[in-house]
Design a protein that fits this description.
68 residues, mainly beta, two-stranded antiparallel sheet, 1 helix, 4 strands, 10% helix, 29% strand, globular
Length: 68
């Protein structure tokens, strides 16, 4: 069963599925996070670091960090 969690991105409350990547959750909620190396159907690698976001004070790549 998918668990829905509430997250905050740039001060905007968003709903996301637990385990979904932050980048995908942001996209579903209409929030743009730029990327260069993330392609549909290809496993995320986080190699370009363009999608870096701050999560609880730590810098993480949005394409490889799951929502928790």
């Amino acid at each position: 069963m998918n668990q829905i969690v509430k997250i905050t991105i740039d001060g905007i409350e968003c709903m996301a599925t637990k385990g979904q990547y932050i980048l995908d959750a942001a996209k579903e909620n209409g929030i743009f996070i730029p990327t260069l190396c993330n392609y549909t159907g290809v496993k995320p690698r986080g190699s370009c670091r363009i999608c870096t976001v701050k999560v609880n004070g730590r810098m993480m790549t949005a394409c490889t960090t799951p929502v928790a």
